[in-house]
């Protein structure tokens, strides 16, 4: 079974690479911008013709949430046109597409966890381009899984956890917003789920039973604010720092973020029969890896 991974040098791409050894029946083809630019349709066609993947995991994205406000065309090209290209090339090759989307497609006005069926209403350029990417896939190729996730961190690349650890080494005190509520996601847990979906889908293909294509939510279990997340990182690392909770208005950013973006994971747990780790336990594992 050949699985082609786009954006393989990013944090989710590297997380997939870090667990690939546990899936010996899968032959992974890792590509990033240099090998396959998802915004270049002919480039995608030629890479697919060479490797003939049965599955494609699209982790490639424009993820600079604030910068996207001043680079909307670039963000749209990578987050919307890129997925559209992949959907079309997957259709040409009968390849199943797994695509990653975000909690930022929601406006954050809910008080209860978002379901896959809730109506998106992005408040940022990044969120809008990610929603456009979802729609482009849905309009072009049925055989897809769109996995929406939130607050992704890992031992790889840049993310909130690594920023907190760096800032703690430079400062004695830190202020972090405590009125944005969500759930952290260890990228390695997300990687495991994506590969479980592929395995389960492959088994279904063999048995010719129906596949469960569509949209799924995935994050770790639990609910917290960015302040809680930072506090837990420092607690687990026994870092003494003066940490203060602040409201969003005291930390203005170019992009508006949802005040509440907890995702309901009932569907993914039921369909793929998975258990999900609590975010604090998964953080423990990640910090251990970092050591
Ligand atoms: N990070 C989060 O908190 C978060 C939250 C929710 C959802 N997500 C979604 O999760 C997915 C994975 O995110 P991540 O954190 O792993 O992102 P990431 O670390 O930014 O990785 C994205 C990768 O895609 C590459 N890339 C950019 N443009 C490309 C192109 N045209 N063709 C091929 N590759 C290209 C990037 O290369 P360069 O670095 O050279 O640009 C980078 O290696 C994304 O879909 C993201 O929207 C992330």
Main attributes of the structure:
alpha/beta, globular, binds NADP nicotinamide-adenine-dinucleotide phosphate
How would you describe what is shown here?
The structure is a single chain. With 291 residues, the protein is of the alpha/beta class. The chain has a single domain, classed as NAD(P)-binding Rossmann-like Domain (Rossmann fold), CATH 3.40.50. Helix content is 41%, strand content 16%. The strands form four sheets. Strands 2-1-3-4-5-10 form a six-stranded parallel beta sheet, with helices on both faces. A two-stranded parallel sheet has the order 6-9. Helix 4 links the parallel strand 4 and strand 5. Helix 5 packs across helix 7. The longest helix is centred in the N-terminal third of the chain and has 22 residues. The protein is globular. NADP nicotinamide-adenine-dinucleotide phosphate binds next to helix 1, helix 3 and strand 4.
Q: How does the overall form come out from the CA principal axes?
A: globular
| Rg (C-alpha, Å) | 19 Å
Briefly note the CATH topology name: Rossmann fold
What is the mean pLDDT? 96
Q: Domains counted in the coordinates: how many? A: 1
- H and E string: EHEHEHEHEEHEEEHEEHEHH
Bound molecules: NADP nicotinamide-adenine-dinucleotide phosphate
């Amino acid at each position: 079974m050949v699985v082609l991974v786009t954006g393989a040098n990013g944090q989710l791409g590297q997380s997939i690479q870090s667990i690939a050894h546990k899936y010996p029946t899968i032959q992974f083809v890792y590509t990033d911008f240099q090998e396959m630019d998802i915004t270049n349709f002919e480039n995608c066609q030629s890479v697919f013709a060479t490797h003939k993947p049965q599955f494609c995991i699209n982790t490639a994205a424009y993820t600079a949430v604030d910068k996207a406000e001043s680079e909307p065309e670039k963000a749209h090209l990578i987050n919307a046109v890129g997925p559209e290209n992949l959907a079309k090339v997957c259709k040409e090759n009968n390849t199943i597409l797994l695509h990653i989307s975000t909690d930022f497609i929601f406006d954050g006005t809910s008080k209860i966890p978002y379901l896959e069926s809730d109506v998106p209403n992005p408040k940022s350029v990044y969120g809008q381009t990610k929603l456009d990417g979802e729609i482009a896939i849905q309009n072009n190729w049925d055989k897809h899984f769109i996995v929406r996730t939130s607050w992704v961190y890992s031992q790889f690349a840049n993310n909130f956890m690594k920023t907190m650890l760096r800032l703690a080494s430079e400062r004695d005190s830190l202020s972090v917003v405590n009125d944005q509520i969500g759930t952290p996601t260890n990228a390695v847990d997300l990687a495991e789920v994506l590969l479980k979906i592929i395995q389960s889908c492959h088994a279904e293909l063999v048995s010719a039973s129906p596949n469960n294509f569509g949209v799924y939510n995935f994050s770790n279990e639990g609910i917290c604010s960015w302040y809680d997340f930072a506090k837990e990182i420092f607690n687990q690392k026994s870092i003494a720092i003066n940490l203060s909770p602040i409201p969003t208005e005291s930390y203005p950013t170019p992009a508006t973020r949802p005040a509440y973006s907890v995702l309901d994971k009932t569907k993914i747990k039921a369909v793929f029969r998975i258990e999900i780790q609590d975010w604090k336990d998964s953080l423990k594992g990640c910090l251990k890896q970092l050591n």
